[in-house]
Amino acid sequence: MRLWFLIPLLLCLPTLIRSEDYSDVTIVVRGAETIASTSDEFICATIDWWPPEKCNYDQCPWGQASILNLDLNNPLLAKAIQAFSPLRIRLGGSLQDQVVYGTPNLGSPCTPFSKSSSGLFGFSQGCITMERWDAINKIFVDTGAVVTFGLNALQGRWQMGRGVWGGAWNSSNAREFMEYTVSMNYPIDSWEFGNELSGNGVGASVGAEQYGKDIIELKSIISQLYGNSRKPLVVAPGGFYDQKWYAQLLDISSPNVLDAMTHHIYNLGAGNDPQVANRILNPQYLSQSSDIFRDLQMTIRRHGPWSAPWVGEAGGAYNSGSRKVSNTFLNSFWYLDQLGQSAKYDTKVYCRQTLIGGNYGLLDTETFVPNPDYYRQCLAVASAHGKGSNFLRHQRFFGGVALLMLNLNKNMGFMVSVRNDLNINFREMAGIKRDSSFVHGLKRTVSWVGSKASDGLEKREEYHLTPQDGNPFARTVLLNGAPLQLTEDGDIPSLPPVMVSVNSPIYVAPLSIAFVVFPDFEAEGCER
Fold first, then answer.
1. Is 271 helix (H, G, I), strand (E, B) or coil?
2. Hey, what's the signal peptide range on this chain (predicted)?
């Protein structure tokens, strides 16, 4: 499934308030221009290393959701992964650079993490056995998951000063682990090097020059181990974006070594911040993330055009998420908005923190039942990954286009009529104002049919998502008025649309989300 994005060059301001309940909006879309594309596995979710003892703000929300202890036999887990066909899964997180691999030459007992005041993030070194690695790969092979695995990039280094680590990477344990993985024919799509060691780092940092040299070594190891077979991608550094550090890493690692640059983004603040909910509904605040995506895109173009931007972790609120917001309907607004922002700037992969674990899991940590964001992610895969306000992105969908509209206004709905610039004459275009920041309550992405003649019989598919009982903090989401719940057999429910005449306007209710599929949308940019 290939995604394409178009810039709306012409937008109309609301011209008439029909009532106090909704506003008429007309949008004109220029459908011939392509601005970016994502990968086929753009949608991604993470599984972390945190043990049950990981706590923030007097709560410990991780339970048995770690790579080391997650119940891989729970049938809901496999069904949740398989529903995406495929879902990219990134295995990694803060404790990644304290993980050793239980290979024959490890030279020490293979034991899990334990609390340690002298260890990074308050935990000791932890080990994954090869038996556990076998079990993890079995479920991924069975469900068709696309796997990105994060390697320990601190092995062999020493702490030179406060938070600063020096010395070259000792690759021996990682190499033996990778050799085992290759011998078992486990289909790893990409190996990621390190977690949050870039710039000033989080807990620890490594200079870009040494990091670049180590990535060259990792690339060489992959070339040797995989021979003539398809070689996994090399991605790094999995940290918070620092322009100077990222640019230097590309300069040092040399052309065609680093296939993707991963970065993390938690734009809503700390999990216990009382302003998290308000930030989600503030379009100006949400739009600030575009600066990061834009800057990284330019850094890659200037210093490493062979590479591509990835979001390796995005959870909204950091420190395990917000227990009041992250697993509710409201959380979806920042998430879907950011999917689109990142895509506009050529991001190829976007990994949501987490599939399961913490307060921000797509699945409930204890029951494995999907949280509201899981269904939104399903619809994003099935139809489109979108964003509104300042840009429009489209996806080819069996000959058509899928669109997303987010209404952040608590009180007003929007009646959206959309036109294609292919059937607007010059005089009409001259009277239309260009896009501005007036859209304070509506993040929207929309389009229309185009110049093709219509007999009025064509239909479009609409998927309207609202919270149960109108409560934005509800953990049950309604699709076209019906609650989304697992079937009696524990299967992910079907997501049926309502069929609407393609020529009618689209009503987007207050605090709601709408996916709309147009089967015959005319957009040349989507055909390239």
1. coil
2. 1-19
Of the candidates 439, 434, 447, 374, the one whose C-alpha atom is nearest the C-alpha of residue 404 is 447
CATH (residue range 43-385): 3.20.20.80
Query: Tokens 């506003």 identify what position?
Result: 23
The CATH 2.60.40 domain(s) of the chain lie at: 22-34+395-423+457-526
Task: Give whole-number Cα distances, 476 to 280, 373, 483, 485, 512, in Å.
Answer: 18, 10, 7, 8, 13
Catalytic residue among 41, 176, 192, 313: 313
DSSP state of 24: E
CATH code of the domain occupying 22-34+395-423+457-526: 2.60.40
DSSP 8-class letter at 85:
S
pLDDT of residue 15: 35
10-35: per-residue pLDDT in tens? Answer: 223 333 334 447 788 876 666 677 77
Q: What is the pLDDT of residues 508-523, one digit of tens each?
A: 999 999 998 877 767 6
Instruction: For 401-416, give one letter per residue: b (16+ CB within 10 A) or e.
Output: bbbbbbbbbeebbbbb
Give me 86's structure tokens.
Answer: 């495929």
Residue 101 has pLDDT above 90, yes or no: yes
Given the residues 196, 366, 458, 527, the one annotated as active site: 196
Using CA atoms, how far residue 486 sits from 81, 380, 492, 496, in Å, is 14, 19, 5, 14
Is residue 366 annotated as a catalytic residue, yes or no? no
Question: What letter would DSSP give residue 445?
Answer: -
Is 488 a known active-site residue?
no
CA–CA gap between residue 230 and residue 221 (Å, rounded): 14
Extract the tokens encoding 173. 């344990």
Give the tens place of pLDDT for each residue, 70-80.
Answer: 999 999 999 99
Burial of 471 (0-12, 13-18, 19+ CB in 10 A): middle
pLDDT category of residue 443 using cuts at 50, 70 and 90 = very low
What residue spans in the chain does CATH classification 3.20.20.80 cover?
43-385
SS3 category, 512: strand
Nearest of 214, 107, 228, 83 to residue 151 by alpha carbon? 214
